[in-house]
Design a protein that fits this description.
The structure is a homooctamer of 166-residue chains. Chain A has 166 residues and is an alpha+beta fold. Chain A has a single domain (35-164), classed as Beta-Lactamase (2-Layer Sandwich), CATH 3.30.450. Helices cover 44% and strands 20% of the residues of chain A. The first copy, chain A, is built from five helices and five strands; from the N terminus they run αβαββααββα. In chain A, strands 3-2-5-4 form a four-stranded antiparallel β-sheet. In chain A, α2 crosses α5 (147-161). The model of chain A is unreliable at 1-23 (pLDDT under 50). β3 of chain A pairs antiparallel with β3 (67-72) of chain G, so a sheet runs across the interface.
């Protein structure tokens, strides 16, 4: 696709999604991560953790709740599939890091119910993927010795594709 | 159905359900929300949240634990199906708002087990639907930034049909 | 409750449910089996099978898909819970015997998908419970040596309460 | 949103989605049913079946596998939630009617495995929702006496919004 | 069976179960609740709660983890099946009341994991059924306004059959 | 336990279980496989298959539907846990070999529903464990190249303990 | 790792795994796909299908039943996650293509139970990954118009890494 | 297999697994518990608990998350299957005792999410099985009166095979 046409399309999309959801709209348009981008982010997150000697799984979800990419590094523990995918889903659907979700629950016990929603995992290591302020997905890492270390790898994955998130 | 006959039926129903459950009764009668009412309440709750810019899901359950209506607004996050339906179910089956359930668990840790019952979600946003003191269903909203905002939309849904809940 | 009032209530109910579902109705009324009736039917079905030396489970569902009564006879095999409850649910929700459902699937392979619906078990032994033509529940028996023998016990359960199904 | 801008956006979208998935694309755009359209289609399908005296559930899924609208008509049997939602999901994800899926399995036994995929229900009553040749969702109806009757109501739902599916 | 023979059998059973589990034993014998006893206890618990105006479900499990009897009283909320059966299972498998389990978890947070075991519900209302010190089952009630009130009904169920638990 | 006492106990048990289930009995007694026997049968089945070069899993269930012993041989494929345990459960609860169950379903399509009961696996390799005519459990093997070969190993497991099944 | 040492290790491994499973062995060694290889195979399979205009998901499992890599191509239908992962698992655990499994079930109805084992999907599109005769994993593709087309992409994935499978 | 060859193989393995996961490796090698070892450890753990009069279940998982051995002792409560297997899985996948996991969650509430990962049970009684510092599996015991007593039996199981874990 010619670069110019794509720019127009994305501009048009922005207009569409900015339109008021006034009930008059029949078809909406949503921006989605390509597998190209999702896979590259996952590879970068895995590389970062592997380089540091951490044996991890990495997952990327899109905004519709569909798993786009999953990679289990060599020697990653069995539970890291469930852990990485849930962190990625949580970040994508709540639009914040899973460490923030965990902190919010700890500081506000009446929101503890959040952890009972299927797929939600309030445990550090997941981060939302954004185009500006719009959440378009989430990435999650599991298996490093601590949620902050998992999250650093997630951030490395996002950093790798950051300049193309537009 | 002629209006008059319906009034008689409902009056008779009230008599039936007020009768002592003394074991001598073979067939009981229960009042159920019509899809007409359930759908209208769900639409009103969604409209209220949409108007405020919140991207939410709305669910209505009847007293038998059956989902009657579900609407996912444009752009609502994936987890809002599970969250809205569980809030509605919780309000319908426990007969109180989900915020009250969350508060009760927080203040009385020995009732924490409530959150382990399948389908129960102690998180603000759900409210019971009543005819007088009789719980006939529940409505739940998820996706607004805070349980109180979800609950306000649920209340808007109930308000829309309140005068016909009799 | 005085007999007379009950008769009126039920007559009124019949009028309500016979009314066209034209969207103008806000609250509907449904007739439900009492636990009195459900339990008695289950006991009778179990007694019939026990007398014949069959070790069975018996289940009764109402029209809303709620289990009302379950009895596991002495020595009934573990799987009979799943089998009896699913037969009862199938009869209640499809409104015909489970043997008829099995036959229909066998004779019309394109309806084989019926068996893939959660809770549906196309295996003889379940029968609907009716008030006239109106299905108000289902009963299922499992553990006898053959679906026809299971169904005979289900029928014995219904026969016990037949004259009060009105 | 001004009509003209929307036309541009959709045209641009068509260009985006027609572009070769050559790995060079970072963000893709997808057209989604609005809740406005999904809800209207569901209401129309329910009205059609209700008018004919069928007690049914209706479900609409989008192309991402998210439930958008669900309505349980008065008196619809308990299993109709699972049946209607699975028919709608099947039509949306496979892009054909569920009757066609059932026929294909019947005529080609080696494809019987299709029925083992979670969420797939090869039973008449579901139909894809399309913009031209592009599948953007699915609608499913359950509870009428026969898959062809369920499908007729699904088609009534699509017909109601057909001219706006563009 | 003649009374005398039965006495011998039970005495013999006691001897069998008292034998050291030294690996030399090939077949063991266990005492089980009859459906006669289980059903009677469930009926008594339901009657007690009904008399007090509580709309509840009652469940009885045996020591092998099999549901023996379940009764849903008229008007009991949908969640009471899950709640009553889990309370009964918890009491049967842990050998103490569910209120004690809840208290233990509250006082000893490192045992909070107990609540994560499938089927375990730490919420008042369940009680073990014993022959002397030997746990042979559990009963659970759900739906009354408070775990203590549920438990009182469970106790009424046990009291009804107490003198035959030998 | 002295041999003589045990004989008496078992004889008494036989009397108890032979008694008519006439409702007059409060506590019943059941014979259960000891872990001693279950484990030995599993080891023998595994040894037989291993000797023939088959990489298998072996499972033993008791009559109450509880898993008593499970062994995964070196190199057995992942699915063999589910396959072996379900074959053992099927044989224990239906009281016949899983090859017989598969044949019965094939010859009598209207009993196809059997395969839809949770835990039932109609696939050769499982066999009931009996004391005379009384089914006291089941054993299942999975992973050999063919159900008949799996069943031969199951039979070797039973043969090992046959003379103590009394 | 120096090439030479690796060769020794693998040779030693071959010796280990060739040793009779005579019970005398305490620790065994298994060869596992690296994420390097798994990911490359998945990318190649996806590229092949994308080039042909098919919108698919690709999954790679190892011999232990762990998902190693998953990629959802742009526009792949929702069900393709379940379909691709199950095809890959089936091929890995049964050691043959899923088309062969489907054919075997069709030709030998008494083996139909295979399809009831959790995770087994008898539908063309999956292929085992082997080192010589040793199955070390499986790859599965879903979303192309026909199982043979899915399988062709799976084969392209294997072909990409074939010469390093040693 | 000659002892010498095995030593070489294991030495080579150590070299392989110590190699940097630099992406250049195609096939990795992992050390696995043999069923010989797993079964012996389980038997020893069960014997220890039985000797002390505790009625328990014992489970052993390998590092891939596969159950290798399970034994339910005579009279062990129904829930001990779920409890023992989850403790063993938790210890194997997290590489520490389940008591340590419970303590960590208690002392650091923001890690409470750990308990929400499927299969993770933070309750004393499980212990990792190691070869030096390398976690190769986990063992779990459930049913003794207290997690410390369960853990003591797990430790007895490991002690039995300790000198062969190399």
């Amino acid at each position: 696709m010619p670069k110019g046409l794509k720019t127009v399309a994305i501009a048009a999309l922005a207009a569409v999604t900015a339109a008021p959801a006034a009930g008059a709209q029949d078809i909406t348009a949503t921006r989605q991560l390509s597998i190209h981008l999702a896979s590259e982010a996952a590879q970068a997150a895995l590389a970062q953790c592997t380089q540091q000697g951490y044996r991890v799984s990495v997952a990327v979800y899109d905004r519709s709740g569909l798993l786009r990419a999953y990679l289990r590094g060599d020697g990653a523990s069995p539970h890291t599939y469930d852990s990485a995918t849930r962190k990625a889903f949580t970040a994508a659907t709540l639009g914040r890091t899973t460490a923030e979700v965990a902190k919010r629950i700890h500081e506000n016990p009446e929101s503890a119910g959040l952890a009972n929603i299927p797929g939600i995992l309030p445990l550090g290591g997941g981060a939302p993927i954004k185009i500006g302020d719009e959440v378009v997905g989430g990435i999650g890492v599991a298996g490093a010795p601590g949620g902050d270390k998992d999250e650093a790898c997630s951030n490395a994955g996002i950093a790798k594709v950051q300049d193309r998130l537009k």
